[in-house]
Design brief:
Elements (H helix, E strand, L loop, with lengths): L1 H8 L9 H17 L7 H8 L3 H7 L3 H24 L6 H18 L7 H8 L5 H27 L9 H22 L3 H14 L2
Helix pairs in contact: 2-3, 2-5, 2-7, 5-6, 5-8, 6-8, 6-10, 8-9, 9-10
């Protein structure tokens, strides 16, 4: 009944809506969800922070779940561009590219005084309280990110940076498990040290 009432109370979609409003909402979602998480970020608070009325919100998103999933998709696209920028930079050897990505990501956390984490990692911790649609989106995101790292590690094998007996796909999965843990610890300690420690450890294991 509540859903039906909300449906009737929403304004009809029109073609005069400002396309910049959606971009503003997605950016606001990134800020709040990376700092406070999905469940702790109320829709009213998010909208108030960017002075967007609920009517405008419902022009673009059916509900908070749909909004969260689109913020996740937006973050995935943004982060994959960052990954690809570094991992496909053929000016450097493959392992150095991976190191450059980790440094860039670490600097990004420091820029915001470690108040923001990885959106995917944050949502993963909230999964018991989230709709199952988030689980599928997170798994797909990790699979995509792992494929990018695995491809970089395959190139490292081809250039004899790591030995042929290592499994790039398995190593890529381990990388993301460890990296997300390091991101969480960096937020806890308000320091880049956990990111640096993990990066050094992971790269060292590749060459032994």
């Amino acid at each position: 009944m509540d859903n039906q009432k909300r449906q009737r109370g929403r304004p009809k979609k029109n073609q005069d809506a400002d396309p910049n409003t959606k971009a503003v909402l997605l950016r606001a979602g990134l800020v709040w969800l990376t700092s406070s998480g999905f469940n702790q970020s109320s829709l009213d608070t998010i909208l108030s922070s960017v002075q967007v009325p609920k009517g405008s919100f419902y022009h673009y998103f059916e509900n908070k779940e749909a909004y969260g999933l689109e913020v996740l998709a937006h973050y995935r696209q943004y982060f994959e561009a960052k990954l690809s920028k570094h991992l496909n930079d053929t000016r450097y050897p493959p392992l150095q590219r991976l190191s450059h990505f980790m440094s860039d990501a670490s600097n990004g956390m420091a820029k915001y005084q470690f108040s923001r984490g990885c959106l995917i990692g944050n949502l993963e911790l909230e999964l018991p309280q989230l709709p199952d649609t988030f689980r599928h989106a997170i798994v797909a995101t990790y699979s995509s990110w792992q494929a990018l790292v695995a491809n970089c590690l395959k190139q490292a094998q081809a250039q004899a940076e790591i030995t042929a007996d290592k499994d790039p796909a398995a190593l890529a999965e381990v990388f993301w498990i460890g990296w997300e843990g390091a991101v969480a610890r960096a937020r806890l300690l308000q320091s880049a040290q956990p990111l640096q420690q993990f990066g050094q450890f992971f790269l060292k294991q590749l060459t032994h």
